[in-house]
Amino acid sequence: MSDEQNPFGGAGGFDLNALLQQAQQMQEQMVSAQQELADATVDGTVGDGLVTVTVNGTGELVGVRIRKDSFDPSEPEDLEDLLVAAYRDAKARADALAAERLGPLAGGLGGLGNDDDQNPTGGPGPALGF
User: Fold this and answer.
1) What are phi and psi of 120, to 5 degrees?
2) pLDDT recorded at residue 130
3) In 1-130, which residue ranges form alpha helices assigned H by DSSP?
4) What CATH number has the domain bearing residue 72?
5) In sequence order, what DSSP letters do the residues of 5-17 get, joined into one string?
6) Rounded Cα gap, residues 101 and 9, in angstroms
7) Which residues contact 94 (CB under 8 A, 6 or more apart)?
8) Does residue 31 form part of some domain?
9) pTM over 0.85
10) Residue 55 sits in which domain range?
11) How many CB atoms are closer than 10 A to CB 32?
C-alpha cells in the first residue's frame, strides 16, 4: 500500500482524509458490485434439464422452466422435489458468484478490524501508542 493510500501515513501519523477517501472508494465499489450481482443471472438445473430455475446474483428467483414431459401429473411430489433441488443448485451458484465478486472488496477491510500484528493490546484497530 502506498503512502497515499495508507490512512496511517508514511511517517506514522494518522490521515483522516485518506481514511475517509478510502472508505468512500470502497463504498462505491461495493455498490457497483452489488448492482452487478442484481443484474447477473445463474441457472440451477436438475434431472438432465427436466427443471431449470434461474436466480439473480442475490439469490432472488427470476425464472422457472419445466420440460413438459418431465413429470407424471399424478405424482406432483416429483416435480416439487425437482423444483427445490434446482433452486438449491441455482442459489449455490449465486452464492459462489457473490463470493467471487464481493470477496476482494471484503479483503480491503483488513486494516479496519482487530489485527494482532499491528495491535498487541488486542483492542480494535492499530495500536495508537497511548
Assistant:
1) -65, -10
2) 29
3) 16-39, 76-107
4) 3.30.1310.10
5) T-TT-TTS---HH
6) 29
7) 37, 42, 55, 56, 57, 58, 59
8) yes
9) no
10) 16-107
11) 12
